[in-house]
Amino acid sequence: MSVRDVRLLGDPVLRVRCDEVEAVDEEVRALVDDLYDTMYAADGIGLAAPQIGVPLRVFVYDVRDPDLAPGVLINPRLVEAGGTVRESEGCLSIPTLEETVERRAQVVYEGLDREGRPVRIEARDLLSRCLQHEADHLDGVLFIDRLSPLKRRMLLSKWAKLDDSEKKPAGTF
Ligand code: ZN
Q: What is the DSSP letter of 6?
């Protein structure tokens, strides 16, 4: 188990469509453990495998709600979605930037857990947003891609002007 570097905007691994996990083996379990360690070290509430440089369809989440257990989803599939909601959102891979993003309000994902067993997660509010944000990462999609072209250009020009030392970990996913 170890804390890995979080890859930042500009790293090509954030832009690939990640591969399905074919078998949940020791290697995948080690990846899951690294994801948890790195997410907690970064004080994030979610982290996807490409964010630590591994192009596989795996993410972890923990929205720090005593009623919602932390978890992992491997090969997630969105099976139900309802409503829409607009809330502020950031990303550990694009520190400092935050913007309002429209997401589905309620979602149901199915996938596999750390032991390779089927799981089904019903989510609303912050967990729903978190799962959708992480699932996007597995398709090479970042939250800035869900903004209007104008908003995206404004954020990217702000990002381009920042020194690395000014990039603060404001994002949570
Ligand atoms: Zn993110």
A: P
Q: pLDDT at position 66, please? A: 93
- pTM confidence score: 0.95
Active site residue 26: no
Out of 22, 26, 115, 134, the active site residue is 134
Whichever domain contains 28, its CATH number is 3.90.45.10
Cα-to-centroid distance, 9 and ligand 1 (Å): 10
Q: How much distance in Å is there from the Cα of 133 to the middle of ligand 1?
A: 6
In a domain, 143, yes or no: yes
Instruction: Compute the distance from residue 109 Cα to the ligand 1 centre, in Å.
Output: 18
Compute the distance between CA of residue 168 and CA of residue 36 in angstroms, rounded to an integer: 21
The answer as to whether 2 is a domain residue is no
Residue 121: which region, alpha, beta or left (left: phi > 0; alpha: psi -120 to 50)?
A: beta
Query: Across the 173 residues of the chain, what is the mean pLDDT of every consecutive 10-residue run?
Result: 93 98 98 97 96 98 94 98 96 93 98 98 97 98 96 92 77 71
In terms of residue numbers, what domain contains 39? 12-163
